[in-house]
Design a protein that fits this description.
The chain has 500 residues and is mainly alpha-helical. The protein folds into 3 domains: 189 residues, Growth Hormone, Chain: A (Up-down Bundle), CATH 1.20.1250; 54 residues; 228 residues, Growth Hormone, Chain: A (Up-down Bundle), CATH 1.20.1250.20. The protein is 75% helix and 0% strand. The protein starts with 24 loop residues before the first helix and ends in an 18-residue tail after the last helix.
Length: 500
């Protein structure tokens, strides 16, 4: 399962003069890995707890998406800026501030007494995560300067990031079932305290990049544009597509994002140099990551509710139920990266993955109140996982390969931004469409009848699966058209970019 990729604008910049390798570098790796795990698992740990949180705080089905979206939107839209801040104010300082802020907003979310307080805390987590993640990767890069040790360190770091989603699903289930849903947020305090103490003791203050500047106009334009798009899609659930509060916000979002693109061609220190997007394989990969993020995040949300509310699974059982999908994803990720892409290239592999994911989602539309796990739930989950692995491994590799050294960090950050924003837009849009399907089903029926309500929930989940499948069908067509034929050429002078 692909997970957040941190930005580091100087990811390949090594000191010109020999430097002393930090004596406690492997302890530093542990500190950085712990902080990364905290950020990564927070993308999934709350999903399992969401039904319990909704029951406790009493928010609506239409609003529940914001608990997921607020984190992803803040994280994705501010990640590019976070890398610049780490350069400007120092990596150690940024890392420690990010840890404190993430812990504080996690505690605020755990103590939430209202829906607004919870969503605000989740947005705060995303904001401080956007500081923490780039600083962590920059610190890792400057700590391990010897080639073989760097390879080992990044392998460990990548494994932590890759396992974070699975750990989040299981840990979220255990904490929710045996303690309380609030502990899915409180648990971050333990991670943060240990990482902060270790970071304060072991990390050294590096030289700041005096030439780095913050692109404040670019940050405002892209953040406001993305917010308008996501909020516009979510508003369609309560205000209809014809309302100015829906189409007006969507239009404003498109205009703001267009202005952001224009500004990036004028800014002396752009957040996202547009040359990064113009390579054909790289552009296709960014689109593939955006689409798969939109489909994948929505599935986690709706399938969690289906298993807990329709099938009566416990939170722990729900978390465990996702594990075959994670295993299938890891299998095809390794297959695609090590066998398929080096031999046949991305053009047949990514469209095949998109098609498998769409097939798995279409299969899920047949799930009902009597579906058994082994016979009905697990098979389409495995098919979905197989497809996602074939999409994500090539897309993440090609999205960050062949870039110039000065663009290495921003390419990595753009991968993560595309996934998080795709997830935000997909979750908002799928929530609107699924809520509409439930409302249509209830028309003319008794809304107090438990059987009717149960079936309306199934209708809403089915609509979400169908539309998620449609995203992947669109991805199949787009990736089939955009990717070049053949095995990608390896540029030995290109920047080595970390991706997970």
């Amino acid at each position: 399962m692909s997970q957040p990729v941190a930005d580091a604008t100087d990811i390949v910049t090594l000191p010109a003069q020999p430097v002393q390798t930090p004596r406690h570098r492997w302890w530093i790796l542990g500190v950085i890995g712990l902080a990364q795990l905290m950020v990564v698992l927070d993308a999934t740990i709350v999903n399992i707890a969401l039904p319990s949180a909704q029951q406790d705080l009493g928010f609506s089905d239409g609003n529940r998406q914001w608990v997921v979206t607020a984190y992803a939107l803040a994280f994705g839209s501010l990640l590019l800026l976070g890398g610049r801040i780490a350069d400007l104010f120092g990596r150690k300082n940024t890392f420690l501030v990010g840890l404190v802020g993430f812990a504080g907003t996690s505690a605020l979310g755990g103590a939430a007494t209202s829906f607004g307080m919870l969503v605000g805390a989740r947005a705060g987590q995303g904001l401080f995560g956007a500081l923490l993640a780039p600083a962590a990767l920059s610190l890792l890069t400057t700590t391990f300067t010897e080639a073989k040790e760097r390879a080992k360190a990044f392998a460990v770091f990548g494994a932590v990031a890759g396992a974070g989603a699975a750990i989040g699903l299981l840990l979220g289930g255990v904490l929710t079932e045996y303690l309380d849903w609030r502990w899915t947020l409180y648990v971050n305090l333990f991670f943060a305290v240990i990482a902060f103490i270790g970071g304060a003791m072991l990390l050294t203050r590096g030289v700041r990049d005096k030439g780095s500047k913050l692109d404040i106009p670019g940050t405002i334009l892209v953040s406001a544009g993305l917010f308008c798009v996501v909020y516009g899609f979510s508003n369609a659930e309560s205000h209809s597509w014809g309302s100015v509060q829906t189409w007006g916000l969507l239009l404003a979002g498109v205009v703001l994002l267009g202005a952001f693109g224009w500004w990036q061609t004028r800014s002396a220190h752009p957040l996202l140099p547009l040359r990064v997007l113009f390579d054909r394989n790289r552009g296709a990969s960014f689109v593939a990551i955006l689409i798969s993020g939109a489909g994948m995040f929505g599935v986690f949300l709706f399938l969690t509710y289906y298993m807990q509310q329709s099938l009566g699974y416990t939170p722990v059982k729900t978390g465990a139920a996702f594990m075959p999908m994670v295993a299938a994803l890891m299998l095809t990720t390794a297959l695609a990266a090590n066998v398929l892409i080096p031999r046949i290239g991305p053009k047949p592999v990514v469209p095949l993955g998109m098609g498998l994911a769409a097939a798995g989602l279409a299969w899920m539309t047949g799930l009902n109140l009597t579906s058994g796990y082994a016979a009905h739930v697990m098979p389409p989950l495995i098919v979905l996982g197989l497809g996602l692995g074939l999409v994500m491994a090539p897309a993440m590799s090609l999205a960050t390969s062949g870039v110039a050294a000065e663009d290495a960090g921003v390419a990595s950050a753009t991968v993560n931004t595309m996934q998080q924003i795709g997830g935000s837009i997909g979750t908002a849009l799928l929530t609107t469409l699924s809520t509409g399907a439930a409302t249509d089903y209830l028309a003319g029926k008794n809304p107090k009848d438990p059987a009717v309500l149960a079936q309306s929930a199934l209708e809403s989940y089915s609509a979400a699966y169908w539309w998620s499948g449609a995203f992947f069908v669109a991805g199949l067509v787009i990736s089939g058209l955009l990717y070049r034929r053949g095995v990608p050429r390896q540029d030995e002078n290109a920047a080595p970019v970390v991706h997970m």
